Amino acid sequence: MYLKRIEIAGFKSFADRTKIEFEEGVTAVIGPNGSGKSNITEAIRWVLGEQSAKSLRGGKMPDIIFAGSESRKQLNIAEVTVVLDNTDNYLPLGFSEVSVTRRYRRTGESDFFINKKACRLKDIQDLFMDSGLGKESFSIISQGKVEAIFASKPEDRRGIFEEAAGVLKYKQRKRKAEQKLFETEDNLSRVQDIIYELEDQLTPLAAQSEAAKEFLALKKELTATDVSLTVAKIKQTRDSWESAKTDFEELSKTVEEKSRFIQQTEQQLGTLREKRGSLDEQLETGQQQLLHLSEALKQAEGQKALLSERSKNTQKTSAEYRETLNEQRKKKADAQANLQEVQAQQALKQTEKIALEEKIQQLTNEAEKYKKSPKELLEDLRGTYVELMQESANVSNELKYLERQYTQETAKNQQSVTRFEALRDQLEELTEQQSAVQTKTKTLEAQLTEEQENYRRLAEEKNVAQQQLQKEQQLMYDMMSQVQQARARQKSLQEIQENYSGFYQGVRSVLQHKEQLSGIVGAVAELIEVPEKYTLAIETALGASAQHIIVENEKDARQGITFLKKQRSGRGTFLPLTTIKPRSLGAHHYQAIKDVDGFLGIASELVSFSENVAPVMQNLLGAIVIARDLDSANLLARQLRYQVRVVSLDGDVMNAGGSMTGGATKQGNRGNLFNQGHELAEWTKRYEEINQALQAKEAFVRDLQAKVADQTESLETLRTQGEQTRLAYQEAQSSEERVATELTRLQKEQSLFSYEAKELESFLNDYQVQKETLEFKQVELKTQQDKINQEIQQLNEESDQLEEKRAGINAELSRLQADYAVLDERLLYLDRQALGFEEQINELTNQIVNLENQLLALSSDSSDHEESEESLTQRLTELATAREHLQEQLAVWKEMRQSLQQQVDQADSELTEANREQKQLLARQSQADVQKNRYELKLDNALAYLQEEYSLTFEGAEAQADPEIDQQVAQTEVSRLKQAIEKLGPVNLNAIEQYQQVEERYDFLTTQRDDLLSAKEQLFETMDEMDDEVKTRFFTTFQAIREKFNVVFPNMFGGGRAELVLTDPDDLLNTGIEIEAQPPGKKLQSLSLLSGGERALTAIALLFSIIQVRPVPFCVLDEVEAALDEANVARFGRYLSAFQNDTQFIVVTHRKGTMEAADVLYGVTMQESGVSKIISVRLEEVKEDGKFQVKEGELRK
Question: How many other C-beta atoms can be found within 10 angstroms of the C-beta atom of residue 242?
């Protein structure tokens, strides 16, 4: 597997969608600092599951989205897609090409895709776990990670080795097992708590259950005695109440007569008072009118005098207003003339201002030409001269460097020739070894593939069977629950039916003893089958008849009644088959309603019953009509002329005669009587069916368990065999890889020698050309320096004339600007004058309008005064006449009022006496009423006591009471029984049933606890097994990497030694890893004392050691060799070439040696500020002279 392609859009500096194609081998990414090279590394790390923004050089995750530049707005989404070549099935997916996409929005939402199908981040992390590409792996080394590795704690450093050992999946499984263990312990704790609680409940519930049984026995005895006693008290109280009621009614009649007399007197007195009140109102009104007339007369006289005075003043004011109006009009005309003069001056000055602005602009443009002083021009030329001198010095340095490089390359070529001859002999020997090892590896690979396929197939079959077993077990448990529920319901219904629960006491007593009595057929409700649709209607139609008892003849009925009397078990109604005759709906009635909408049928035809009880059923239901609803019932009743009873499905009734019965129904016992038998049969059948299915399911589960056990055994055998084959195959593969690695390394060294020979030839060919070019450039720079000298001398001679010209232009420009300022100030003054005149004109206009309005009002007032004076004279005469007439009427009304007052006083005296007599009668009536109410309250309390305590009406209680009871003896017995019940204390009547339920639950939970304990032990065993596997794999991998590190380190450093040491070898699950390094010529020292280059080279040596032990598909290195010198960079490049057949390398670098080892170069540039672009070149296209055809967008090399 290798990294085939990466597509980046909106990620950091890659604003545009960018596609980078990779090939096997070494790919180098180069470019200036800050161009975005490292963003490619971080994009790969991010898409593979990195969650830390700091690891991606950001403060928070939105920082990875393109933040915008000077010419571009920020983006709101970042997306990276990595495409991997999976033809070798390195990843466990059935695809030859695997694409992984990660998308992040600025709002914080993330999307993940594998092969364009949505997935979770966890799915991506699981896919790459233990593949060498995980989060903790050493295959992607970002900038600064080398330092972080050596600065970290030894315990943190072990993550690299765990990734290489492939144990992360075991650690993850262990975490899941620990979580499951926690859940199991939690469940176990809960179950244990409930068990403890139930244990505490069992003992008290047992005692409560016994107390409840004793209570029920005492309660039954108390009920019989107390009911008889209460009935006797009710009869005694009822007699006293009737006597008190008679006395109260006689007093009520006397009070009523006295009340009628008082009412008549009050009516008479009220009439007299109304007349008196009416006269009082008339007198009050007359007095008010007289007062108003006197005030109006005085007011009219005053108004007349005021009008005369106003007429004189109006004429004088009008003349003054006319004089003021003429003056204001003259002022307005003067102001308008002044405004026109100012506006003319404004227009003239504005024209002058425009002309002056044009002259100032012209001079300003001319002065701009002479803005720079001669001194500034001289400074620019001198700066250019200095730059030319610096460039000349650089060219001289390049010439010296070229000569030094020529000497080095010549010496290097002599060493390479000797090494090339030794490589040729080694290559021939290794080629023969490779052929033999490959044959053995292929044979073992075929055998291993076959065994793996068999194991995979059998494992899939076992997983399917295991899942089916779990599913079937859960179904079995569900069915067990259903069986228990069905059995409980069946038992409950059976007990109800056997005890005749729901029937009246008398009916139940007869039915329970029907074996002792003769001729008992049964109750109506148990002998009839009613469809569910008609249950409520038939229940309503039958009413209490549903509990009537059908007997063979009258003798049997008499025997039943006698039995009830002897047993004192209540009452019952008996229906002898010999006397009850059937009834039916008349033919003319049936014809009238058979086609009416809403008619459902005759009640007796809608139910089922035996033929021997048909007469009784026809008698009860044969003449009752069933309707769909109340409206239909009303319609049918009208058709039958209200002669037949009609019942709707909702239980509403149209009675014969036209009365209606209906409303909300309270579901009582009768509704269940019709369905008890049917429901019991249904639940019995259901119980048998579920029980049979449960037995079949249990057999099936046992078979599945046996099958899974056989498959597990076969899998274990195959696993053992496959493990042996795998070890042999890995051993052969390792031998092949060692030979192939060594062969590849030698071939790369041979290729490197050929490349270095070509480069030397190319360098020698270009050496003379470059030398001549640099010497020519030196001469050209000298010529440019001489030319700059001449320009500086010429500028010194002309400096005096330039200064004089610039001074003249500046003086003229200053004069014009002063004139412009004066003109602008004059325009502002004229604007203020114009505004003042406009305001004056507006104010004068408003004053003129006001004066004209006032003159018009004065003229109108003068006319009104003349008319008002004549009307006031006439009104004075009328008011005087009305006052005299009103004074005469008031005298007559006062005499009438005095006569009415005498009649009122007499009637009031008679009413007072009658009220006194009525008060005495009401007191006597109240006493009688209190006595009657006291007896009523005693009756109500006794009846309520029967209803609340025993759920009995008086009739029901009287039927079962003992009429000969001695109240005193019964009262003593009741007191004794109540004391006995009180001694029991609080009694829980549900304790009997609760005790049974708690006991059953206790047994069940005890079994559950045992199962959970077993599961807990199994989890501990599984975790121990995983710990053993992690220890073995980790230690094996660590030892292998350690051995490789001991070899690679001296090769990379050219000597020295290094060691990997476990900080705690006894604790392989948590031990840290120390790195000890001793570069050549130095003492063994800690990592912190190594130089930056030595630390980087140590990290690279560790990387190559890990790759040798656990080759990874690809490796991304970001400037890891930045701190190395040229010699070490060359070694680093040779190692890259040696490993490129097994591992794809993507290297971000600035170093020439690394670039030389690369097969493909990618250049990252920022042609547009803040936006990264990619250009590429294939090194195989480079010609022998080191040049190649340059295309647009490609990088020169």
Answer: 10
Helix pair angle (374-498, 799-950), 10° resolution? 10
Which segment, 287-301, 507-521, 766-780, 1008-1022, is predicted with the most confidence on average?
507-521
Q: How far is CA 597 from the centre of its chain?
A: 54
Give the C-alpha separation, 898 to 1129, whole Å.
141
The Cα–Cα gap between 1183 and 1177 comes to 13
**Residue matched to tokens 């050929």:** 754
In eight-state DSSP terms, residue 61 is G
Contact call for residues 638 and 598 (beta carbons, < 8 A): no
- Angstrom distances, CA of residue 339 to CA of 350, 839, 845: 17, 11, 15
In this structure, what token pair is assigned to residue 516? 């002792």
Cα separation, 1020 vs 1001, whole angstroms: 29
- Other beta carbons less than 10 A from residue 551's beta carbon: 28
SS3 of residue 928 by DSSP: helix
Indicate left, alpha or beta for 1055 from its phi (over 0: left) and psi (-120 to 50: alpha): left
- 23-27, 54-58, 623-627: which is most confident: 623-627
pLDDT at 373 over 90: no
pTM of the model: 0.39
Q: Is 117 helix (H, G, I), strand (E, B) or coil?
A: strand
The tokens 């495409």 sit on which residue?
83
Residue type, 1015: A
Q: Locate tokens 């023969």: which residue?
A: 432
DSSP run (H or E) holding 628: none
Q: Which is it for the CA torsion 5, 11, 13, 18, positive or negative?
A: positive
SS (H, E, C) 1122-1166: CCCCHHHHHHHHHHHHHHCCCCEEEEECCCHHHHHHCCEEEEEEE
Q: Is the dihedral of CA 718, 719, 722, 728 positive or negative?
A: negative
- The values of phi and psi at residue 795, to 5°, are -70, -35
pLDDT of residue 568: 80
State whether residue 544 is helix, strand or coil: helix
Of the chain, the end-to-end C-alpha distance in Å amounts to 29
Task: Please give the helix or strand (H or E) that residue 1117 lies within, else none.
Answer: strand 1114-1118
The helix/strand/coil state of 913 is helix
CA proximity to 596, closest of 638, 562, 551, 659: 638
Task: List, for residues 259-306, the tens digit of each pLDDT value.
Answer: 877 788 778 777 877 877 787 777 778 777 777 777 777 777 666 666
Select from 1126, 1120, 1083, 1084 the least CA-distant residue to 1102. 1120
Taking the C-alpha atoms of residue 357 and residue 365, their distance in angstroms, rounded to an integer, is 13
Overall size of the chain counted in residues: 1197
User: At residue 673, what is the residue type?
Assistant: L
Nearest to 649 by CA among 752, 574, 541, 804: 541
Q: What's the Cα-to-Cα distance from 388 to each of 358, 770, 784, 790, 1001, rounded to whole Å?
A: 45, 20, 8, 15, 101
- What's the CA gap between 100 and 93, in Å, rounded? 12
Any idea what DSSP says for residue 612? G
Distance CA 551, CA 604 (A): 20
Q: CA–CA distance from 631 to each of 257, 585, 603, 650, 673 (Å)?
A: 51, 21, 18, 11, 28
Q: Which amino acid is at 1100?
A: I
Instruction: Give the DSSP letter string of 176-243.
Output: HHHHHHHHHHHHHHHHHHHHHHHHHHHHHHHHHHHHHHHHHHHHHHHHHHHHHHHHHHHHHHHHHHHH
pLDDT band at 8 (very low <50, low <70, confident <90, very high): very high
The alpha carbon of residue 828 and the mean position of all alpha carbons in its chain are separated, in whole angstroms, by 68
Torsion of CA 17, 20, 21, 26, to 10 degrees: -170
- Reply yes or no on whether the pLDDT at 702 is more than 70: no
Judge whether residue 670 has pLDDT over 50.
Answer: no
Q: Could you tell me how far CA 382 lies from the centroid of its own chain? A: 72
> DSSP readout, 795-850?
HHHTHHHHHHHHHHHHHHHHHHHHHHHHHHHHHHHHHHHHHHHHHHHHHHHHHHHH
**What's the CA gap between 10 and 39, in Å, rounded?**
11
Q: How far apart are CA 121 and CA 104, in angstroms?
A: 12
